[in-house]
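We modelled the chain as a single entity of 428 amino acids. Its sequence is:
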Amino acid sequence: MKAKINPSVINGTLVAPTSKSSMQRACAAALLHDGETTISNPGKSNDDLAALDIIQKLGASVVISNEELIINNQGSKLSGDNINCGESGLSIRMFTPIAALSDQSVTINGTGSLLKRPMDFFDEIFPQLDIAIESNKGMLPIKIKGPLQPKDITIDGSLSSQFLTGLLFAFAKAATKAVTITVNNLKSKPYIDLTLQVMKHFGYNVENNNYESFTIKPINQLTNKPINYTVEGDWSGGAFLLVAGVIAGKVVIKGLDSFSTQADKAILQAIMASGATISIEEKQIEIAPPATGLPALKPFHFNATDCPDLFPPLVALASYCNGTSVIEGVSRLAHKESNRGLTLQEEFAKMGVEIILQDDLMMVKGGEGLKGAVVHSHHDHRIAMACAVAALKANGQTTIEEAEAINKSYPDFYEHLQLLNADVSLIN
């Protein structure tokens, strides 16, 4: 599919999409809960659907009722011999340790870019937990056989906090005594805050020792105790809508919790530093370009090490700032749906924006004006959305090839831009 976007002045009100980070964690917790879980405001992205498929393959039942999900796992042992995580990095890293709670052999696979992502973390850690593992030289598919035995271990947290998330869920379910996971160089700490928040909601007891170690204590879950969980609005997807407002018009975005633990809430810091017009209220955020008579958008310096998914919307924002913006944390971009540092550099160059990559820094030279161009998503949802937002004030039409990549996280993205009066057309 191709998306064609013409320069537009946008306005209107939207409700932010559902957080797949919150949704997928809720699915994991519901799978492990001995009883019924009701999930309100469930997501429908490809990653969300992958998580729902996984928990059903592992023994849970899922029923859709009045736009809620009713998930049951009546104390049954995890079962299933084959799960597919789609292209979801969180699902593969979170559900693999959970699947290892089973004493059956389970083969874990994925599709697309996930087949190229390194999974040798499991090769190193699983034998320490009495889990047999066969991998494809550190890549998918992976074959495992548990049951996982929680033990005091030390792990490397520099590649992704998602590996720790999976271990925390699995340890919490299986622990019969207090055990501690020590973590070196943990990245994306706010995502661990979200994990711990979901786990606490489901009755688990995990002690955070200044992000250097985590002590998991055994609990006595009450069988059949129903649990209700409401999925948050998504700051990762919402960031693109907010940047669109900064660039192309006045918008009001609802459904984003200003007190959320989601890492990508930090987009507000960059937006405020740029000099955009912004009003943050309890239930909505109103955002627009700088007021008439004020200076143009200002370049900013932002550390995205703990929120690497913000690089694409930050690049779109920086492209319209009058000067060079600096974004730290480029090392976190290599193992995404694409190598995002290089991909952003390549695609934004087509639109006339120079991006320099130097060690762990990305420097975006903005303020020169963008030109419409034919760009490619590289099958990466966030690249497609970044190009679409940047196109709203470019000089001429922009065409995004493989534009359907947005289905991974935000399938309604183009429709939502249209609701804000953006000139967007889709061609199959």
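As a brief sanity check on the tokenised model: The chain has two domains: 2-17+233-427, 20-230. DSSP finds twelve helices and 24 strands in the chain.
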